[in-house]
Amino acid sequence: MITGEKALTTPTNTPLPSIAILGGTGKEGPGLALRWATAGYRIIIGSRQAEKAQATAAELNARLGINTIQGMENSQAARTADLCVLTVLQDAHRDIIENLKADLIGKILVDTTARVEFQAPKPPAPPSAARLAQTKLGPDVRVVAAFQNVPANLLKKNLGQTIEVDVLVCADDPQAAQEVIQLSTAAGMSAYYAGGLDNSVVVEGVTSILFSLNKHYGGDAAVRITGLGN
Amino acid sequence: MITGEKALTTPTNTPLPSIAILGGTGKEGPGLALRWATAGYRIIIGSRQAEKAQATAAELNARLGINTIQGMENSQAARTADLCVLTVLQDAHRDIIENLKADLIGKILVDTTARVEFQAPKPPAPPSAARLAQTKLGPDVRVVAAFQNVPANLLKKNLGQTIEVDVLVCADDPQAAQEVIQLSTAAGMSAYYAGGLDNSVVVEGVTSILFSLNKHYGGDAAVRITGLGN
What we know:
The structure is a homodimer.
Chain A: E1 19-22, H1 28-38, E2 43-47, H2 50-64, E3 70-73, H3 74-80, E4 83-86, H4 93-99, E5 108-111, H5 129-137, E6 142-145, H6 152-156, E7 166-171, H7 174-186, E8 190-193, H8 200-217, E9 219-228
Parallel strand pairs in A: 1-2, 1-4, 2-3, 4-5, 5-6, 7-8
Antiparallel strand pairs in A: 6-7
């Protein structure tokens, strides 16, 4: 049984893992970086160009009044961190997975990819992006799918406060899922273990639903889960 | 622009459509029937056997203290009603669509099918059940996908009160979607237009997520939408 965290808490008795945010100079990565850095995690921004990563790191440090966020080329970032979060654009997903295979060995890779176009949203075909990643990376990397549906602009404001979004965490390894549930909680979002990696194609597809809702009703639609026993 | 209904309302100036609930003797159909009958809709329970449909209709009438719910063989039910709702088990989906094609001409067919097994939940492959239905039925029937994620046991209790479930309504015809949004509201659930019929494969797949959540956390998980502009 995996329990969802409901409040803004971080583990207290173990050192926090360092987190590399690969492709972390886009929309989603900096928001997650800000929230995790605020919660005390050591953050490394990764990018194809070290200079670009360092520029984003400097911006984030300036916003938070800290100097602990680093910027590195993706491969070095992956090797340096305890845990990696992939926030590249969907078109770059395949290449970065292939390029970083050796760097990710022994680590958890959190895949945030949702293969949905904003202009013409439609559900992606299975297998899920995270399953594709797991297949390419093999059993030495534990892939966890999460954060595909989190509106980037909600991450960047009101740091330290909770966000009205529930994160659906899919993984074949429940222990890895539990670590990502803790990360989600640390970033201010409730999170739930939503089954194996194949389920994450649905979570990707939910992005298509949310884009459709936003087009018709305006706003930043997000999903919450109700009715659970605890 | 399609607007979501937030309260328990029904259209006031037009007569309510009669509703056939095809395959309506299972788990989901009677719950919807009870709620719509409570809201004043004329309900016809359909089944492969007229006697079985009549027995269910009699049970529902007895519960509500009315005698207006009828039971008929599916084909007759479809022809008699203004609008049809399909609540068959997934294995029966294909056959009933083929068998009722002529009876459904000119009508809206609401497809509630989620092709997910409770014991081994996994996302269904596209195309969605509703898209398959639309393709088989052709342009003379307007298929709307809805109610795939509504826990049946929530429908049957506290009739007349709202349910903490949001219904994602997918249809290629926005006007047909709007009619189903009104039906959902009448049954006590908020509903939103979530894009075209192809999006409904995601809504089916959400059932796989909800089954996974129920297994880990207990309860009757359901989805709510937050963050919309209105």
